[in-house]
Amino acid sequence: MGIQDIVTAIDKKGSFREVGYEEFAPEDQWAHEVAKDLKETKMRQLRKVFKQIKNIDKKIKGRGKDEPLNESIIFYILPQVAYAVGRELVTEEFYRLVKTIIGKDATTTKLKTVADYHRFTEFMTAVLAYSK
Fold it and tell me: Quick check: 34 and 2 in contact, CB under 8 A?
């Protein structure tokens, strides 16, 4: 399984909370596969992106899980990852993965609710953990 397979599977989902823990958390599943792709990635750059993801997660903590996300700041994560691709700090495949999850706008994002965003944070936490 490669990142393109993961992107295709996520693209078929209506929202990110439909992604089950069993799909991404166990070894040799999505998070582990993404981490393998990021083997040559600068950990500092990955942590920088992760920090922004966690900051948004803290901001929405305490909201109801079914509340709409309504946080346009999530779209700012994409230019950060694109910049990292341009500097060859992360892979193009990682950018496509993040772009598939975040989307181009409110109609294409997989992060529609607070629960979707929390699942995305858990997924990225697993990716970071496997990257070490």
Answer: no
